[in-house]
Amino acid sequence: MTRLIDREFLDLCLHDWLGTGDIAARDTVDAVLDLSETLARERFLTHFKAGDAQEPRIGAQGVTVHPEVRAAIAEYAELGLFGAGFAEDLGGHGLPFVVSCASFAWFAAANIATSSYAMLTVANARLIAQFGSPAQVDAFARPQIAGEWLGTMCLSEPQAGSDLGVVRTRAAFDGQDDLGRRYRLVGSKMWISGGEHDVGGNIVHLVLAKVAGADGSLPEGTAGLSLFIVPRVLPDGKRNDVAVAGLNHKMGYRAIPNCLLAFGENAGAVGWLVGEEGQGLRQMFMMMNEARISVGLGAAALACRGYGHALAYAQERLQGRGSDGAPVPIIEHAAVRRMLLAQKALGEGALALCLYAARLVDAHADDAESAALLALLTPVVKTFSSETGLEANAMAIQVHGGYGYTRDFDVEQVWRDNRLNPIHEGTTDIQAIDLLARKLLKDGKGLAVLKARIAATCAAADGFADEVAALQAAWSDVDAALEMLRLRDAALDVATPFLFAFGHAVVGWIWLDLAIVARGKGKRIEAGTAAALRYFIACELPRVRAWLACCTAGGAVLEADAGWM
């Protein structure tokens, strides 16, 4: 049985490193993880390839998906996993966010496309529970927490891309009822995962739109965005004025439909305002930030799965001969072992980073330091995991040789699925601007917290003197580059390589922290964690200085004229 995620490493992260025992009983956590792995293998993994081969289709009855997707989501709901991380008074189980994330990692590793229905629904329901009125929570959040309905996030439009300031979906006030201020929406939304399907009884869309003025004009920029709850089926049982206008055919995540949606082609789609007008983007950022952690977690889980496939293949595939002339498995070759160790260091490092961020979510409501650190690390979580997870999956293909890029082996699809994650929920370059412009150049609170935690780790790292020295040198390079960027007019030109460097420096610290905690936890986990640390420090951390070279170079780095490129 191919390993999806190393359970022993996951236990180390949760129980020994992140201290989930302070917020949840260990037997409860273990039971949730056992259940999650079993369901992921028996209901999600089983249609991993079939859902990819038989994409959603538009027919007379709307969009239909592979029947095993419906069955998997139904059992996920029956076991209460949609509500795992919600308070009991909302119908949930009250699990900490870090535990629900660890649970979700199994499903993402087994089938990232099918698990995305749940990820989007949970984030949708959490936003409504946070910002919606009691009536809206009862009407729209509770059915999603129960898994009876599913949800989406509708931000972008065909002409807008990532520039939400130019959104043109309009909303006109249409009266007041028990669910709040009601509006009629007209417009279109693009790239909507799970936008239309036959999986759940209803779909709750969270739609960003602009309220038209008295003269019919729309406010400019993102400040004019408001957020609306727009269900596919209205409370009276009638179909809302929402239609799928087309499906986008992606290279991965194929079992979940990605839609162009049309709102208001007839009388206007009915939607209810969440909170106040003009607060939509602030509210949606809660959902987007949770989704960024979830996308990073999914990318890390896929990296771990690819590593499991590559390891199993390398242990079985005979090629080349040993000193006695007998055939040997390819894991005996140094080049293969290097690629396997690289996948472990990147994939499990990303998984640990995501779980660390999830633990901060549990703490940040009552702890300003945790909130500041979470804000700083969110773009790092999303980017490091999605970018290096893809690198790890590429190496998994390489370990398989020619078989790796055939559809007969899963690593080909794992790579395709993961290739979407650097774009999902904000591209890598958008995350880079967020980190550099907002989280570092404008506000240094999160960085101060991070540096204090790194210093504490280094002080406790007896026996890792060389690794500590290398990590401290890397952070000195980051600090020096950041100080130069504070004085540079075109700092954002190099925001992306700076994010890459920053992310690697963060994960170098995480591996050191993990290696300290792993001591005495068993020969396999202690030796494996130490090996991953040594590899990361020796082979990955030097990339930090290379990425920062363009950040500290004098003059403009990007002088290309669009006319001659």
Give an overview of the whole structure.
Keywords: FAD, Flavoprotein, Membrane, Oxidoreductase, Transmembrane, Transmembrane helix. This is Acyl-CoA dehydrogenase. It comes from Novosphingobium guangzhouense. Belongs to the acyl-CoA dehydrogenase family. The protein has 565 residues and is an alpha+beta fold. Among the domains are: 144 residues, Orthogonal Bundle (Butyryl-Coa Dehydrogenase, subunit A, domain 1); 127 residues, Butyryl-CoA Dehydrogenase, subunit A, domain 2 (Beta Barrel), CATH 2.40.110.20; 115 residues, no CATH class. The protein is 55% helix and 13% strand. It has a five-stranded mixed β-barrel with strand order 4-5-10-7-6. A two-stranded antiparallel ribbon has the order 1-2. Strands 11-12 form a two-stranded antiparallel ribbon. A hairpin with a 2-residue loop joins strand 4 and strand 5. The longest helix has 37 residues. It is globular, with a radius of gyration of 24 Å. The relative contact order is 0.09. The model has no long low-confidence stretch (mean pLDDT 95).
